[in-house]
Amino acid sequence: MNPSRFEAVDALRGAAMLWMTAFHLSFDLNQFGYIHQNFYTDPFWTGQRTLIVSLFLACAGMGQALAVAAGQSWVRFWRRWAQVAGCALLVTAGSWLMYPQTFIYFGVLHGMAAMLLLARLTVGWGRGLWPAGASVIAIYFIAPYAITTLASPRLVDLLNSPSLNWLGLITVKPVTEDYVPLLPWLGLMWWGVAAGNGLGAALKAGHWTGQVRPVFQPLVRLGRWSLSYYMVHQPVMIGALMLIAWVSSQGRA
C-alpha cells in the first residue's frame, strides 16, 4: 500500500464529506424556504459546522504528515497547493455572485491553503505539535479579552478588518458565509499533523497497515476525491433545488 494513502484517513475524510453534504443540503433547503432554521446562531447547526471543519483540517494535517513520510517532493506539494488555492479563488468568485454582501474571502479552502503550507514547514516538530496546537487554540479564546483590554481602538479595528481578520485575532465575527481563520483552526491542523506522524511511525514499524474493512471502501474512494467533490456538490444540489422550484412553479401556472 502507498504509505501516503492511508486508507483509514481517507475513510475518515469521506465520512466528513457525507456529513458536510447533509449539512449543506439542509442549508440549501433553508435558503429555498423548505425548512426554517437559523444556521448562524443555533448551536445545533453551528456545532455541526465546527465538528465538520475540525475533521477536514485534522485529516488534511494527517495527510500532509503521511505524504512527507512517504517522501513527497516540494514540487508535488506545490502542485496540490495550487489546486487548493485556485479552488479557493473560485469559491470567492462564486460566493460573490450569490452573496455579494457576505461573500467568502477566507473560508475553508483559503484557510486550508495557508495552513497546509505551515503544516509542511512544521511537520518536523514531532510531538511538539500537540502543545503547539493547544497553544493556538488557547490564544484564540484569550485573545478577545486581551485585545479589548490592552490594544488601542485603532488596532482593534485593524484586527477586525478583512485585511487582518484572517489571523483570527478578532473581537467581532465578520459577516461572511464562511470564515476559517488561522486561529483556532491551525491548532486542529497541527494536531492532525501530530497524529499523522504517529500513524506514519506505526505504519513503518508494521504495527498497523492503515487499511480498513471492505465495507468502508466507498468512503475511502470518496475521501480521495475530496477537493473535486467539495467544488461540485453545492452547485449540483443548488441546481437540483432550482430545477425542482421551477418545475413546481410550472405546475402551479
What's the layout of helices and strands?
Layout: H1 7-31, H2 43-69, H3 74-98, H4 108-122, H5 129-150, H6 153-160, H7 182-205, H8 217-223, H9 226-252
How far apart the termini lie comes to: 58 Å
| Mean pLDDT metric | 92
What portion of the residues fall into strands of 2 or more residues?
Answer: under 5%
Described by strand count, sense and barrel closure, the largest sheet is: none
> How many distinct beta strands?
0
In N-to-C order, the SSE pattern is HHHHHHHHH
Shape, principal axes of CA atoms: globular
Number of helices: 9
The stretches of 5 or more residues where confidence is low (pLDDT under 50) are: none
In short:
By secondary structure, the protein is an all-alpha fold. It is built from nine helices and no strands.
Fill in the keyword field for this structure.
253 residues; mainly alpha
Tell me what you see in this structure:
71% of the residues lie in helices and 0% in strands. The chain has helices at 7-31, 43-69, 74-98, 108-122, 129-150, 153-160, 182-205, 217-223, 226-252. The protein is globular, with a radius of gyration of 20 Å. The chain starts with 6 loop residues before the first helix and ends with a helix. The mean pLDDT is 92.
